[in-house]
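Job type: complex structure
Entries:
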Amino acid sequence: MKKLINKPENFVRESLEGMAYAHPDLLKIHLDPNFVYRADAPVQGKVAVISGGGSGHEPMHGGFVGKGMLDAACPGEVFTSPTPDQMFEAAKAVHGGAGVLFIVKNYTGDVMNFEMAAELAHAEGIPVQNILIDDDVAVKDSLYTAGRRGTGTTVLAEKICGAAAEAGYDLKQVADLCRRVNLNGRCMGMALTSCTVPAKGTPTFDLGDDEMEIGIGIHGEPGRERMKIKSADEITEMLALAIIEDPAYTRTVREWDMEKGEWVEVELTDEPFKEGDRVIAMVNSMGGTPVSELYVVYRKLHEICEKKGLTIVRNLVGAYITSLEMQGVSITLLRADDEMLRFWDAPVHTPALRWGM
Amino acid sequence: MKKLINKPENFVRESLEGMAYAHPDLLKIHLDPNFVYRADAPVQGKVAVISGGGSGHEPMHGGFVGKGMLDAACPGEVFTSPTPDQMFEAAKAVHGGAGVLFIVKNYTGDVMNFEMAAELAHAEGIPVQNILIDDDVAVKDSLYTAGRRGTGTTVLAEKICGAAAEAGYDLKQVADLCRRVNLNGRCMGMALTSCTVPAKGTPTFDLGDDEMEIGIGIHGEPGRERMKIKSADEITEMLALAIIEDPAYTRTVREWDMEKGEWVEVELTDEPFKEGDRVIAMVNSMGGTPVSELYVVYRKLHEICEKKGLTIVRNLVGAYITSLEMQGVSITLLRADDEMLRFWDAPVHTPALRWGM
Amino acid sequence: MIVTKDQIVRWLRRVADVLEENKEYLTKLDAAIGDADHGINMDRGFKRVLGQLPKVEDKDIGSILKTTGMALISSVGGAGGPLYGTLFMRAGMAVDGKQELTPEDLVTLLRAAVDGVIQRGKAEVGDKTMVDALVPALQAFQKAVEAGESVDIALERAVAAAEEGMKATIPMLAKKGRASYLGERSIGHQDPGATSSYLILKALLDTVREAP
Amino acid sequence: MIVTKDQIVRWLRRVADVLEENKEYLTKLDAAIGDADHGINMDRGFKRVLGQLPKVEDKDIGSILKTTGMALISSVGGAGGPLYGTLFMRAGMAVDGKQELTPEDLVTLLRAAVDGVIQRGKAEVGDKTMVDALVPALQAFQKAVEAGESVDIALERAVAAAEEGMKATIPMLAKKGRASYLGERSIGHQDPGATSSYLILKALLDTVREAP
Ligand SMILES: Nc1ncnc2c1ncn2[C@@H]1O[C@H](COP(=O)(O)OP(=O)(O)O)[C@@H](O)[C@H]1O
Ligand SMILES: Nc1ncnc2c1ncn2[C@@H]1O[C@H](COP(=O)(O)OP(=O)(O)O)[C@@H](O)[C@H]1O
Ligand SMILES: [Mg+2]
Ligand SMILES: [Mg+2]
Ligand SMILES: [Mg+2]
Ligand SMILES: [Mg+2]
């Protein structure tokens, strides 16, 4: 196993401790249960934005804790959803009186654990809402699956909602904005290599020397299709067209009814991209792919968007939501309106995303 | 070959084109000869800071072009020094009347090509100086080798000198500062895996599944010692102690005598670290190592520095000077005085390094 | 024949052993159609349970099982954590205050446990999840008890049904959980959660069969 | 026997062919003690030379060689670029204006070329660089010409000396260039630059041996 770690069972904790040493101005960590939170939390009167999920996707989420983005992040074991007590303790630590938004990636484990956390927070008198990110167009059908997975749009939603909370939006407003970001964002990824979960010590899956996997999940879940490696341009085209030409997608999700204190089912539909859309584009490394290759992908993505009548008005090119040391790339497009762009451009200062301050 | 590329021979150009699409506000590119330069160049009255070297170390150098850092970067083929015409054309494009500083990593090829470029610039009437970065403590002896290689300190020198130039330092002042940064910076790296040069298509070297290489160069040059993989703490200790306990190092380098228009040999000595030093620490991914592991290394580095009486006053944890998709890490420590820290903290806005704006 | 508190505690310890032994096996199953952590998660969870047991061993069975559920919820994570956490929490709530369990108590316990899993996860039989092992086991157990069989015979039937249910997941197309993303490619693999459910029930049978 | 302009042009074309053929071989040598690009770089460089040749073919030998040097400088990069660039630039400057070369001209040309490499790179014989092939070749050539041998015989001696010098790099410990970082570990490998120098000289011999 080619990793810079000590004992696998200490990996998550030691990585968090390193973060705390490196960024004392931005964040603090709490161990057992584990969470990362803003150094200046709780910020009184501000909605607290919290996310979390399995570890192994760094910098997401801990690297996005700081001013203008997340108030707290709850890292589980590698690729394993965190537990409700982590989210609950984090919520108590950062709740500034205006409630807590949980941004939840749509994986069965994450959803159930965050639902339990919301129930605990509610019982403690903390206003709470859970908004799902389910943007992975590699998953076609929501009737015969657990629905689309939460991938790249998560990063964009955390930035935009973090800025909105900073600007004084109330919980309902931040939650509505988050839902809208999710409904306008789509993502798809691919892998050139597998990754190795430290506790397991061997690759999660085997890919031939000349093979790649399209539509991979960020936990090393096998994707939709395995095929011979193609050129960067062909791969970019496969991902970008799957995103751009994806039809309307309807699913039923559970949100929290704050008044009644119970879960309600909500049907949501997002609309396909269309000519004239302005988009934020993210070209993201799965962890082991260097930025030089990401720019080769961005080059082609730019051309494709132009041809399809989409204008990329902002972009991120780098490693933001990863699968350990996996080589590969994901593309995310978010149809952005003025409000989203305003919050996108707002100052942010976290370990992994920083501008304007 | 597990890479997101099209034809290997187009890799550098296409990656540059992607950068240009992604960062039109920050930089422009020139092809044939290839260089990346500030969108607002030439900045009148400002010393132009230029660096360059083989490609494959991204984000260095192109990712550091922008406000407060480099005016231009000259990327060669992968792991191959750029050619003098690249540096010369870049110098002409960004020269704002106050001269040009070439920051050169100490590799035979880079040194010779940048020397030819300086001669060309001088002949064209552009005031020029070449400052070498030779900080790699893995290379012990300068008498029987081409001298220490230029590695991590390059990134820190580019940031600090870029800020000094922005602040109005003249060419001699920026060059003096750059030399001082180099004399106070030390670096060492290691590899868990090899990397693959696109044009070659197979790994540069073979490492067993349980082996690592200590003291690796950033071009996949074999290092000083091959051994069984150790824990992150042990690896960090090996690198950190090699840096902290490195004795004074004396070497003769060539600098340009601007008045006489000829090369002069200069003897330089840098002093070892000592208790009480304040340092800027960089924990850098060789490209394929994710940031979660870098924090595990940073954690131990923090402890070692504390024990040795060094205070880390600033840090960078991420992929800044890489070897394609190589897994591994390098550690850089720079003894920083107030002047360096002031320029470190100054605003910078480039694709890969950004703060204060 | 009744099941004693002591047996329940020994069962939980045995589950910890069995899951440790099967850690790599379960993880390998999860690698094929999931994310390669089910064995690791369950092992971690029951190690936590082992740590909590001494504190509650002298309480009633309900408390012991609820503590087990809480320990799992706060240590397993993933899908397995809330599901098995709920399973043991509900089991404990169903037998609150009891120091021993009659066959009828066990039916109540199992039904509450399985219902909890279904409520939390919304899976049906045939979706290729732990529900495919749990529901047949519950039905077989209940039927045997109603037919007047002793606890060990009823458990034998339940374990056999769980094993059958577990194996029946192999040809299924997953509709819930991470495996569902694979579509057709989920066919041909045994579900890790159904497997751990079978192992947990089997451990109960083995405990009950031992000299008390 | 003299060397014509036509032969010089054919030599350069042959070098391009030979380097293309040996691209992987040279790169493999460079992978062992360098950074695995020497063959790729030299091949790219002489492809550029091929592109420039039509423009200067009807000029004098000096111009042709200087153009070759400039093409290499602006396309090879690395250590090889400035070194081979300087080699051909200086060679061209030494025979400026000439349409054909006498044996003595060739001595002048080779000496200027090799001196240029030494000035640029500061390497000595024994440092495990191209200098280890070039210097013995120059000496052998000069000695043969001074002894009145014809150009092809003198070149034969030069090539033999270059080959010997190239092989002599195998047991050497590198003191210059990238290989020097390896210390003891550089021993046992043949230097890629010495190898390309040998190939370039061999190509000249082969060209001269052909019917003119
Ligand atoms: N909705 C669900 N209802 C019941 N069981 C489920 C559901 N989703 C997943 N499971 C079970 O959980 C198991 C996977 O558990 P685990 O690996 O711990 O979680 P994760 O998939 O989050 O990594 C599956 O094998 C399946 O039996
Ligand atoms: N200082 C020097 N003087 C002469 N030749 C040198 C010197 N340094 C390196 N070389 C030659 O250059 C060759 C390597 O060339 P190349 O691979 O193109 O450059 P790089 O090492 O920059 O990748 C070496 O094999 C050696 O023969
Ligand atoms: Mg999991
Ligand atoms: Mg090179
Ligand atoms: Mg799993
Ligand atoms: Mg080389």
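Summary: Chain D has one domain: 3-209. Residues C 30, 34-35, 37-38, 78 surround magnesium ion (ligand 5) (CB under 6 Å).
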